[in-house]
Design goal:
heterodimer, A: 313 residues, alpha/beta, six-stranded mixed beta sheet, four-stranded antiparallel beta sheet, B: 253 residues, mainly alpha, 77% helix, elongated
């Protein structure tokens, strides 16, 4: 049984489709990255899955139960970190966690020990008795993550969990997410691709409310990564570029200029053939070769191509 | 009801931590102490200042004047306080995201509403008790007598009227995105309800009659009881909670 499932989930605001027919399954105990540029519909999706927003059409299930507003039983097993977590500023960090523990019906002893454990984990022990109103954005983000874990959730929704964190804070949060994997399904919306590459088993890319693809990071590389050759010369390589464009194993030739050094990026359809024939063609051109490098596109390159519609799906 | 008692405790604490109880109680206390004093000494003040030859017949103030003047004043200032206390209760929480944080937990939305209404009701109960005791005690001191039972009934009726004001304001707070808009609309509806209480026949059953009945009880003026207005007001409080719940259920958090 998938931990999260949605069928044709759609949310419209007037004529604008914030989410357009999302169909998705997230397996249990996986870390699922939900990727998209700003305004793609990530937060809308998380809110729909949390039952905080009503879909225009479509249905969703979380932890086996159909999502609806006002369903306390379902929420007992779910954790949620909003994109910008806000708190009662008059409470202290420790008070807020104990308040959340009470809402989850934790016993007094369990509530106390769990909140202390999470304050430690969120590196907020020293600030535990300070009012939240005086917390920095990063501290609020860490407190938000701590409160989302109070009930040891089976499904955890994290909306941009690392957005306000410094590099050390990000590393700690990502390590924590990795540790949760044994017992929790994590649905993490983000636009930070390195985070996805580091922790996610699978991912979905969304743009303008539409799902572009779902895949594992490795599959995505295998499907969309096309090896490129980056070449730099002492002279203008225009003549070589024209010759390369006529080769059957060449997909695309782009002119480059890095630090005033002219160059070419050659995308090969048949990498093996390119490895043999490209050096020969360079030698025949008589150009002075400065750099010859075979490169693989990063997840970021693939993401940008998919979002901009450059890659065929 | 899931989450109600935890939320109620939190709301009670919030009433103290944000000084709402203290501010509302201080306003009631101010008028509770000030009204008997003003009622007693206004004729003497006018005499002392002088009337420039114009004869003004001032009736001798009584303890009943003091008590009814207090409730009359509080029925206006109290409404304003109720609107100010409740207008941001839901709208502000939705706007800042704390409502989303709380309602993502195993909490019923009705529990969220009722906890707020009860905690705010508690604030007004404390204020009514303190202001009422101050007014009654000072009236006793200055006038030598005060209709305790009539004044108690009058305060109970005033409390019911404030419960309605809180309920209406909570409803608009759940409906509107902006707390000022919620407050403005709530005030407009409360003024409208009070204004139409003067209409023949139907006016008898409207909330505005609660204050008039309370005054008659203090003044020991024989007249009909306005139980119809009590029942209608209680029903309106219930309806305002129901519509607040409907509105919050559909709210995008």
């Amino acid at each position: 049984m998938p931990a999260i499932k949605c069928e044709n989930l759609t949310k419209r605001y007037g004529a604008v489709a914030a989410l357009d027919g999302l169909t998705l399954e997230v397996p249990e105990n996986s870390i699922f990255g939900f990727l998209g540029p700003n305004g793609a519909g990530k937060t809308t999706t998380v809110k729909l899955l949390m039952g905080m927003s009503r879909p225009t059409s479509g249905r969703a299930w979380v932890d086996g139960e159909e999502v609806a507003a006002d369903t306390p039983a379902m929420r007992s097993h779910i954790g949620y970190l909003p994109d910008v977590p806000n708190f009662y500023n008059w409470m202290t960090g420790a008070e807020f966690l104990r308040f959340v523990g009470e809402l989850y019906h934790l016993s007094g002893v369990d509530n106390k020990s769990r909140s202390e454990e999470l304050l430690e984990l969120a590196d907020l022990k020293k600030a535990a008795k300070r009012k939240i109103g005086g917390y920095s954005r990063g501290m609020k983000q860490r407190l938000g993550l701590a409160q989302s874990l109070m009930n040891r959730p089976r499904v955890l929704f994290l909306d941009e969990p690392c957005s306000a964190l410094d590099p050390m804070g990000r590393r700690d949060v990502l390590n924590l997410i990795l540790r949760l994997k044994q017992s929790t399904t994590v649905f993490m919306s983000t636009h930070i691709l390195s985070d996805v590459e580091r922790v996610c088993d699978a991912l979905a890319i969304i743009n303008k409310g539409k799902l572009i693809t779902t895949s594992t990071v490795a599959e995505l590389h295998a499907r969309y990564a096309r090896s490129s050759f980056e070449l730099e010369f002492e002279e203008d390589p225009s003549a070589l570029a024209t010759k390369l464009e006529s080769q059957p194993w060449v997909m695309k030739v782009e002119k480059l200029e890095i630090n005033h050094i002219p160059g070419l990026r050659v995308q090969a359809g048949d990498v093996s053939q390119a490895k043999h024939e490209l050096p020969q063609l360079i030698a025949q051109s008589g150009l002075g070769l400065v750099r010859y490098e075979m490169t693989m596109p990063s997840l970021e390159d693939i993401f940008v191509k998919l979002v901009e519609g450059d890659a065929k799906i | 009801m899931s989450g109600f008692w935890v939320l109620l405790r939190k709301e009670f604490r919030e009433q103290f931590k944000t000084s709402k109880v203290i501010i509302v109680a201080a306003v009631f206390l101010f008028f509770g102490l000030g009204t008997p004093l003003l009622t007693k000494y206004t004729p003497e003040l006018i005499k002392a200042v002088g009337t420039g030859g114009i004869t003004i017949e001032m009736p001798t103030p009584t303890s009943s004047d003091s008590l009814t003047e207090y409730t009359s004043t509080m029925s206006q200032f109290g409404v304003l306080m109720a609107v100010l206390v409740a207008m941001g209760a839901i709208a502000k929480e939705v706007e800042t995201g704390t409502a989303a944080m709380v309602l993502s937990k195993p909490v019923r939305r009705l529990a969220f509403i009722l906890a707020k209404l009860k905690a705010e009701g508690f604030t007004f109960l404390v204020a009514l008790i303190l202001g009422g005791l101050a007014c009654w005690g000072y009236t006793m001191l200055l006038f030598g007598d005060a209709n305790a039972l009539g004044f108690l009934y009058q305060n109970l009726l005033l409390g019911l009227f404030f419960a309605l004001c809180l309920g209406i304001t909570l409803f608009f707070s759940s409906l509107m995105k902006n707390q000022l808009a919620a407050g403005g609309l709530a005030l407009a509806l409360i003024i409208f309800l009070s204004a139409i209480s003067g209409l023949p026949w139907v006016g008898r059953y409207l909330p505005g009659q609660l204050i008039n009945w309370g005054n008659r009880l203090v003044l020991k003026v024989p007249g009909t009881s306005e139980w119809g207005a009590v029942v209608v007001t209680a029903l309106l409080v219930g309806l305002s909670v129901y519509f607040t719940w409907l509105s919050l259920r559909k709210k995008e958090l």
